[in-house]
Amino acid sequence: MLHDLLAWRDARLERAELGYWRMASGEEVDFVIGTGGRLLPVEGKSTTRPKLSDAVHLRSFREEYGKKATSGLLLHTGTTIEWLAPDVLAAPWWAVV
C-alpha cells in the first residue's frame, strides 16, 4: 500500500507530502497526506466490518488539526463504502489504492 501511495504522490502536479502522526500517549494514524494546506489522515484496519471505534485516532487527529483535516479515511478489507461518522469515510483499500 505504501508503494501505491508514493506513486500517487509522485504523479501529482501539486506536490503532496506523505507522513504519519504519533502522540506520546500512543495514539497514531498510519498515513497523513498533506497537500494545498489540507491534511487527510488515513488509517488501515484488517477488518471486513469497520466500526466507529476503529476510527478513534482519526477523530483525535481531526480534533488536533481542526479545519486543516475536514475528514478521515479508514481503509479496510471488506467491500462496503460507508460514512462511519460525518467526518470518517470507510472504504475498501483496493477501491482506493
Detailed description of the structure:
By secondary structure, the chain is of the alpha/beta class. 25% of the residues lie in helices and 36% in strands. It has a single domain, classed as Trna Endonuclease, Chain: A, domain 1, CATH 3.40.1350. The chain has a 6-stranded mixed β-sheet, sandwiched between helices. Strand 3, helix 2 and strand 4 form a beta-alpha-beta unit. The model has no long low-confidence stretch (mean pLDDT 89).
End-to-end Cα distance: 7 Å
What is the average of the pLDDT values? 89
Shape: globular
Structural class per helix/strand content?
A: alpha/beta
Helix share, percent: 10-25%
- Can you identify the CATH class? Alpha Beta
N-to-C SSE string, H for helix and E for strand = HEEEHEEEH
Strand content: 35-45%
| Beta strand count | 6
Strand order of the largest sheet: 1-2-3-4-6-5
**Number of helix segments?**
3
CATH topology assignment: Trna Endonuclease, Chain: A, domain 1
Number of domains: 1
Low-confidence stretches: none
What oligomeric assembly is this protein in? Answer: single chain
The largest pleated sheet is described as: 6 strands, mixed
Q: From the 3D coordinates, which CATH architecture would you assign?
A: 3-Layer(aba) Sandwich
Radius of gyration from CA coordinates: 13 Å
Search tags:
alpha/beta, 6 strands, Trna Endonuclease, Chain: A, domain 1, single chain, 3 helices, six-stranded mixed sheet, 97 residues
What's the gist of this structure?
This protein has 97 residues and is α/β, with parallel strands linked by helices.
Task: Describe the SSE topology.
Elements (H helix, E strand, L loop, with lengths): L1 H10 L5 E6 L5 E8 L2 E7 L11 H10 L6 E5 L5 E4 L2 E5 H4 L1
Parallel strand pairs: 3-4, 4-6
Antiparallel strand pairs: 1-2, 2-3, 5-6
